[in-house]
Amino acid sequence: MFTPEAKISPVYRKALGMGERPTALTNLFTGRPARGIVNRAMAELGPLSDLAPPFPTAGTMLGPLRSAAEAAGRDDFSPLWAGQSFPLARPTQAAALTRMLAGAEI
């Protein structure tokens, strides 16, 4: 996700660069649990909520709020998928990352 070649939104890229934000399991964006960076929706509704529509409709329900927030440069209602250790990741080119993962470069 930290490669310049990754096709992610500017608000997602910005959230990934702010490593001090916590992550939590949430069902708000898909209707199923997945780990993401805590944002306004997760903070206000609770990350795992009975209010979340079932899969696959959950994302559709937040769509208008997400679009408006992202247009304003905010990630309040965006799914920001990230593991617990995302702050340890560093920006790198996709080719260099591929070589490192393949063991050719350490």
First CA to last CA: what distance?
Answer: 19 Å
* Mean model confidence by pLDDT: 91
**Main pleated sheet:** 2 strands, antiparallel
How many β-strands, per DSSP?
2
Described by the principal axes of the CA atoms, the overall outline is: globular
Could you state the order of secondary-structure elements as H and E? HEEHHH
Q: What are the low-pLDDT stretches, counting only 5+ consecutive residues below 50?
A: none
Question: Structural class of the secondary structure composition?
Answer: mainly alpha
> What's the Cα radius of gyration?
15 Å
Describe this structure in a few short sentences.
The chain has 106 residues and is mostly helical. It has 4 helices and 2 strands, in the order H-E-E-H-H-H. The model has no long low-confidence stretch (mean pLDDT 91).
Can you walk me through this structure?
It is a single chain. This protein is mainly alpha-helical and 106 residues long. Helices cover 35% and strands 8% of the residues. The chain has helices at 10-17, 40-45, 58-71, 94-102, and strands at residues 23-26, 34-37. The two termini are 19 Å apart.
